[in-house]
Amino acid sequence: MLTTHATAAVGFSQQAKTYAQLRPSYPLEALEQIKTLIPNPDAQITDLAAGIGKMTRLLLEHRYVNVTAVEPVDAMRDILVSLLPKVHTIKGSSWDIPLASQSQDAIIVAQAFHWFADIETLQEIYRVLKPNGYLTIVWNKEDQSRGQWVKQLHE
Question: pTM of the full predicted structure?
Answer without folding.
Answer: 0.81
